[in-house]
Fold this protein.
Amino acid sequence: MQHENTQKYIEITKKDLPLRCPQPDMVSWNSHPRVFLEIEKEQNHEIICPYCSTMYVLKDNS
């Protein structure tokens, strides 16, 4: 099932890595080019997509 690209806050887990935006379950007709985001290197385990401003938060960062 595909989702609209309207969600601006997404919690992810380590099984979702490597992180890319747009996510695989998002519709592709209105998406920006795929970009990989290195959330593991961020101190607070949050990163914002430079294209769509979606914030991703890594929840199981242990």
In short: The chain has one domain: 9-58.
